[in-house]
Amino acid sequence: MKKGYPVIDFLRVIAAIFVIAIHIYPFASISPFLDFICTRVVGRIAAPFFFMVISFFLFQYGYPTYKHIKKTILSLLKWYGYAIMIYIPLMLYNHYFTQPHLYLEVIKDLFIDGTFYHLWYFPAVIVGLIIVLLLKKGLVLLAWGIVVILYIVGLMGDSYYGMIVHIPALQTFYDYLFVYMDYTRNGLFFAPMFLMLGSVISEEYSIHQKTFIFTGCISFVCMFIESLLLHTMTSIRHDAMYVFLPVVCFCLFYLCIQYQGNRHPLCQKLSLYVYIFHPLMIVVVRMIGKFTHLMVFVDNNFIQFLLVVCGSFGVAYMIVYLLERKNGYGRKV
Fold it and tell me: Is pLDDT of 331 > 50?
């Protein structure tokens, strides 16, 4: 087995589970505070982690070749296309194609917001990668300056929106911006920061591991306090972005790559399929609950969460099995 980063592989699966939690709020009826920590703090590391994984491996041996870039982007486009087709029936059910200004909405969703609520990730990582690839061709300080500015603009349109609306000029700017996007959590403002971090962390560092542990813990506490204050003291348009989130993610990812061993490619496949299919499983679990009158499937968030996790991983395992069986037959032929 080729040597790799097993911690990254395992965290892919854990991150996928946290994504499910964000969409269900599993502990809401048990402990709102625990649910807040799970979905509004820890869970917000998941998407940046996936961004950093892609960027880390893309830039692992320096600036990637055109062939490697093309392969990565085409793979993302392929899975985005598959995911769009999978969710067309639900889009029809939700009357997506009957909304006014349909062509404009489709363009906006395809390139920025995603055609279903979790599919924003694919256009975000594609757009973000293009931005980072272009920036890394130039001066390092200029590239970082642009990325930081984009992230700050995203912060003010995301978690800190409740503060900037009291400034007329900024409110006007963001009102105009939100004509073309639902949130600033996208490939223009959100993804570049973490894709840049992923590319940088592939370089060698002489900083002691304990420094990253200490910095990561302090940053996580600060992010928790930041999130708590924002949710209690102001209105939030979305809470995917925090000031301390990049530091937390950087330290966590650095610690992940300190442990090398056998790769676990199954984790990569499972996390991808779970991410794509879990909203469909949410619908399936709720439908089963309504048709069988087992309303605990609908009303109990924790039970629903467990069922969706099990169902999503079940579907993911089935897809992996069928694809491997198909490929196995193909090789024998």
Answer: no
Q: What is the domain range of residue 8?
A: 3-16+43-265
Task: Give a yes or no: residue 313 inside a domain.
Answer: no
pLDDT above 90 covers a percentage of the chain that reads 81
Residue 100 covered by a domain: yes
β-bridge mates for residue 262, sequence order: 3
Mean pLDDT, range 200-206, rounded to an integer: 74
Average pLDDT (73-102) is: 94
Helices (H), strands (E): how many in the chain? 16, 2
Q: Tell me, yes or no, whether 180 lies in a domain.
A: yes
Give the integer Cα–Cα distance in Å for 243 and 158. 11
pLDDT, greater one: 234 or 272: 272
Does the residue 122 lie in any domain?
yes
Phi, psi of 261 (to 5 degrees): -175, -155
**Of residues 4, 17, 80, 12, the one with CA closest to residue 51:** 12
Give burial (CB, 10 Å; 0-12/13-18/19+) of 146: middle
The span from the first CA to the last CA of the chain, in angstroms, equals 25
Domain tally for the chain? 1
Three-class SS of residue 305? Answer: helix
Q: How far apart are CA 259 and CA 46, in angstroms?
A: 20
Residue 95: partners with Cβ closer than 8 Å, 6 or more residues away:
none
d(CA 174, CA 116): 23
Checking if the pLDDT of 2 tops 80, the result is: no
Phi and psi angles of residue 144, each rounded to the nearest 5 degrees, phi first: -65, -35
Tell me: pLDDT of 51 over 80: yes
Report the distance separating Cα 196 and Cα 25, nearest Å: 30
Give the residue ranges of DSSP H helices in 38-190: 46-58, 66-86, 88-93, 102-108, 121-135, 140-157, 161-164, 168-177
